[in-house]
Design goal:
It is a single chain. By secondary structure, this protein is of the alpha+beta class. The chain has helices at about 20-40, 45-65, 135-150, and strands at about 5-10, 15, 65-70, 75-80, 90, 95-105, 110-120, 120-130. Strands 1-2-3-4-5 form a five-stranded antiparallel beta sheet, with helices on one face. The chain has a three-stranded antiparallel beta sheet with strand order 6-7-8, with helices on one face. The longest helix is centred in the middle third of the chain and has 20 residues, at about 45-65.
């Protein structure tokens, strides 16, 4: 049995991406602490900024509930990007490639790994995983995904 750092085998030929909840909890707590500090400034701009920090913290908590399951028996990938997003079921045969998107928001790097899928005569990006402040983990995730899928 192959050992993976980003996936765990939940049953024969079924792999689930390992949970990375800690990074989202830390970011949400950090944002809420900044929001509390801004709220303590007792000014209109402080209240508005605190509101944005509160909402951003909740968005990180919602993202914490994302999951990816690769089912080699059914030849599908089930991806759910967060708490409020609908699960997407993708046939492995429709995956064209994988891509990484790195975005910087103020001082925060968010590295996202996507599967590029050809569906209904157009390309779609299916979120496979996100990591904060590093792109190396995203690269490792996509390499392991390709390895599980049979070296695509």
């Amino acid at each position: 049995m192959e050992k993976y750092s980003c996936y765990e085998e939940i049953s024969p030929n079924r792999f689930q991406r390992k949970n990375e909840k800690g990074q989202y909890i830390i970011m949400a707590l950090l944002l809420w602490a900044i929001g509390g500090w801004l709220f303590g400034k007792a000014s209109i701009s402080g209240y508005v900024s605190a509101g944005f920090a509160l909402i951003a913290g909740f968005l990180f908590i919602a993202r914490m509930f994302s999951q990816v399951v690769i089912d080699l028996n059914d030849q599908t990938i089930l991806a759910k990007a967060g708490l409020f997003s609908a699960p997407q079921k993708v046939d492995i045969a429709t995956i064209e490639s994988f891509a990484i998107s790195n975005r910087i928001y103020v001082l925060l790097l968010i590295s996202s790994g996507f599967a590029i899928v050809h569906k209904a005569n157009k390309q779609q990006r299916i979120l496979i995983g996100q990591y904060l402040m590093t792109k190396n983990k995203t690269e490792q995730l996509l390499l392991e995904t390709e390895k599980i899928l049979g070296g695509r």
